[in-house]
């Protein structure tokens, strides 16, 4: 059997709350037999760039149209639940508009905007430890330019 890591994408999308706290876009979903919270995220599909995948997954899971601004980083993760290896590209996106009546992907309960404190309070229900790591990296201002990724499709 050959080694084949999963290539995935995720997005950090923010907006200010009424009291000027940063709200992060989350997905409340059914996964692995329980309800979890995740960033908009998913797998790269055939003939798709990483940025296209991030835009598509965010729209399918949240009804949010976004523009990609930067690459936050690349994570290597081995999930303890299934021992699968994931190489995840996390992007920073800007919300263009949100369709609150959009039909979301199967298994998605709702898109939700949470503060970092609310996400930490739900730590046991987070789908992956990469979520809080990505928020910390975002808050530290870590970014990579989009031209870091070369697409030769």
Question: How would you describe this structure to a colleague?
Answer:
The chain is globular and about 50 Å long. The mean pLDDT is 95. The protein is of the alpha+beta class and 153 residues long. The longest helix has 13 residues, at 50-62. The chain has a single domain (6-146), classed as Alpha-Beta Complex (Nucleoside Triphosphate Pyrophosphohydrolase), CATH 3.90.79.10. Strands 1, 2, 3, 4, 5, 6 and 7 form a seven-stranded mixed beta sheet that branches. A hairpin with a 5-residue loop joins β1 and β2 (22-31). The protein has three helices and seven strands.
How would you sum up this structure in a few lines?
The chain is of the alpha+beta class and 153 residues long.
């Amino acid at each position: 059997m050959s080694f084949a890591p999963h290539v995935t994408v995720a997005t950090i999308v923010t907006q200010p709350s009424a009291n000027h706290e940063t709200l992060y876009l989350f997905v409340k979903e059914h996964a692995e037999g329980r309800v979890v919270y995740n960033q908009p995220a998913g797998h790269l599909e055939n003939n798709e760039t990483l940025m296209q995948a991030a835009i598509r997954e965010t729209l399918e899971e949240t009804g949010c149209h976004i523009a990609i601004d930067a690459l936050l980083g690349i994570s290597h993760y081995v999930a303890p639940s299934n021992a699968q290896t994931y190489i995840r590209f996390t992007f920073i996106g800007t919300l263009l508009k949100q369709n609150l009546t959009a039909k979301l992907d199967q298994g998605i309960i709702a898109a939700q905007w949470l503060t970092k404190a609310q996400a930490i309070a739900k730590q046991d229900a987070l789908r992956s430890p990469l979520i809080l790591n990505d928020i910390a990296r975002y808050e530290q201002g870590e970014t990579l330019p989009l031209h870091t990724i070369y697409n030769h499709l």
